[in-house]
């Protein structure tokens, strides 16, 4: 087994290209477009607090014990739309209220994944300034816990439902407006409305279509639609890779435990490790290794589809492709989402900010610039991948993820996949 650091040039053994449309249960070969960003969250924090600070409030708590207080006595949930509310049919930015003022975002997503969205909003509204603080999810959650009601953060933005669940469990976030909650399907948000998904991603199988002759396969159509085959089939030995240190991978493991049982999951990890996989510490570096196709690069990778999508968006001639397993944890659909802290200074601004993320332009921007999926039913997915409705992903309650995904983390450590 080769453990790879994201700063290193990844190596390959045998690689094959393949991109399939799952959902129709057919393995096809398609190109993918549009996505940038890594999930290792190693951004540097810049501008963590606004000059006024955020006062903690003494608002009432909901039935889950999460305080909804803010300095002015008005909660985000009570903040009426400044213009039109959002709804599942899709509402345009033109119909929403203007964004004016300062807002501080603690982000577990990296700068290259979402800064373009923030820049677009600041370009749209001259009076808006978004203070960004980028760091790992666990760092951001710990910071929010330490700061409590004195945090300067108005919004926590994360690609990990477990991290969003953690700040909710700590009582650090408040309910979002009813129109926002009703806009996003319940499977993509916390049932009580304390956080909501704003974009989606799906686990996939990445491969380099130019390297079929370096594999034991006669056609990329032979790639399995069962995630267990990638650990059990000897044809993947020495040519496969993954990134086990991400929250998304641990979520995949937790979903496998819940759907298939702990012993079956442990056996999958053991079998996968017997394939002599390359283990990466960054999703972007893994996808780049699959794409570049050098002698020391992996040919196949388990990872989020949008990493491959961004490479094809940058270079339409890229040989990287993706396919999907069917109705198992290997095609788990997950979300990146936001939560409003209890210390919000301007509830109307924060409420309207979140409305912009789930409005048509916010959804389309994440789709076009970052290769992700919309989470609003009225916004159609446009791109070469199957739409969420076409993907045969398993049904799973994302709000059940806990921050440390402790069960999954301990399992990976027990079976020798972690730490890297």
UniProtKB/TrEMBL annotation:
KW Endoplasmic reticulum (keyword) present: no
Region named Disordered: 31-96
Name of the protein described by the UniProt record: Extracellular solute-binding protein
Biased composition (Gly residues): 40-72
Protein's organism: Natrarchaeobius chitinivorans
UniProtKB keywords: Signal
Gene3D superfamilies attached to this UniProt entry: Periplasmic binding protein-like II
């Amino acid at each position: 087994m080769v453990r790879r650091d994201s700063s290193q040039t990844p190596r390959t053994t045998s690689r094959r290209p393949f991109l399939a449309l799952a959902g129709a249960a057919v393995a096809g070969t398609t190109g993918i477009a549009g996505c940038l960003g890594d999930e290792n969250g190693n951004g540097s924090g810049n501008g963590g607090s606004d000059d006024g600070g955020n006062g903690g409030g003494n608002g009432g708590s909901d039935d889950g014990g999460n305080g909804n207080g803010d300095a002015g006595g008005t909660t985000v949930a009570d903040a009426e739309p400044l213009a039109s509310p959002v709804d599942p049919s899709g509402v345009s930015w033109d119909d929403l209220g203007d964004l004016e003022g300062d807002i501080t975002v603690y982000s577990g997503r990296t700068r290259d994944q979402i800064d373009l969205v923030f820049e677009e909003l600041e370009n749209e509204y001259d009076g808006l300034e978004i203070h960004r603080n980028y760091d790992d999810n666990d760092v951001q959650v710990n910071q929010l816990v330490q700061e409590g009601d004195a945090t300067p953060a108005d919004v926590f933005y994360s690609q990990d439902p477990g991290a969003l669940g953690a700040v909710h469990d700590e009582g650090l976030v408040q309910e979002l407006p009813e129109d926002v909650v009703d806009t996003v399907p319940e499977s993509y948000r916390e049932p009580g409305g304390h956080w909501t998904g704003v974009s989606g991603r799906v686990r996939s199988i990445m491969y380099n279509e130019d390297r079929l002759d370096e594999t034991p396969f006669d056609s990329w159509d032979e790639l399995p639609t069962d995630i267990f085959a990638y650990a059990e089939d000897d044809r993947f030995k020495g040519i496969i890779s993954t990134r086990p240190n991400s929250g998304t991978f641990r979520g995949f493991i937790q979903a496998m435990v819940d759907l298939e049982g702990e012993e079956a999951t442990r056996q999958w990890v053991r079998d996968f490790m017997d394939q002599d996989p390359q283990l990466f510490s960054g999703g972007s570096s893994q996808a780049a290794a699959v794409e570049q196709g050098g002698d020391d690069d992996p040919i196949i990778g388990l990872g989020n589809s949008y990493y491959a999508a961004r490479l094809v968006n940058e270079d339409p001639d890229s040989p990287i492709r993706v396919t999907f397993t069917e109705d198992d944890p290997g095609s788990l659909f997950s979300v990146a989402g936001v939560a409003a802290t209890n210390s919000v200074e301007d509830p109307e601004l924060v409420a309207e900010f979140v409305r912009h993320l789930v409005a048509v332009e916010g959804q389309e921007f994440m789709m076009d610039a970052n290769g992700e999926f919309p989470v609003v039913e009225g916004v159609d997915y446009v791109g070469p991948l199957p739409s969420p409705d076409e993907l045969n992903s398993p049904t799973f309650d994302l709000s059940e993820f806990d921050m440390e995904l402790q069960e999954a983390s301990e399992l990976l450590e027990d079976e020798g996949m972690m730490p890297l």
